[in-house]
Amino acid sequence: PVTRVKEYTLRVWAGKAFTAPGTQYKSVVICESTTASQVIDMALNKFGEASDSSLFQLAYVDDMPKKPALSLFKTRAVPHILAPDECPSSVVEWFNDVPRRFELVRRKK
Residue 68 and residue 24: Cα distance in Å, rounded? Predict the structure, then answer.
């Protein structure tokens, strides 16, 4: 029997990492073994961004809509930074019922 590789399509948002005129996110196709470092490389390539990928981290942010009463605080969910060798597919599997988004984040110096 042929084993099929499970694939996932991630939307990776530029966030505040860099300016991407005309586009907010790029879609990348990954498999279970794709690492955060590889996703960063793929996303930068799709954005046409020539920056060194080691300057970036991949984060996921809970994208839950805020309740109207809570919107007064204008808080944004804290990004969860993935380790370079961590696989984003595990985030997709673990939190498949929670709205979230992946973003590129510049490393702090």
Answer: 25
Neighbours of 29 (CB within 10 A): 10
Reported as a single tens digit per residue, the pLDDT across 8-48 is 999 999 988 787 777 889 999 999 999 999 999 999 999 99
User: Are 79 and 108 within 8 A, CB to CB?
Assistant: no
Tell me the residue length of the chain.
109
Phi, psi angle pair for 64, to nearest 5°: -75, 135
Residue (of 107, 104, 108, 109) closest to 17 by Cα position = 104
How far is residue 31 from each of residues 16, 37, 47, 50, 62, measured CA to CA in Å? Answer: 26, 13, 20, 24, 22
Q: Report the predicted TM-score, pTM, of the whole model to 2 decimal places.
A: 0.81
Q: Are 30 and 89 in contact (CB under 8 A)?
A: yes
Q: Where does the pLDDT of residue 108 fall: very low under 50, low under 70, confident under 90, or very high at 90 and above?
A: confident
φ/ψ of residue 38, rounded to 5: -70, -40
In the numeric block, the tokens 């599997």 are attached to: 93
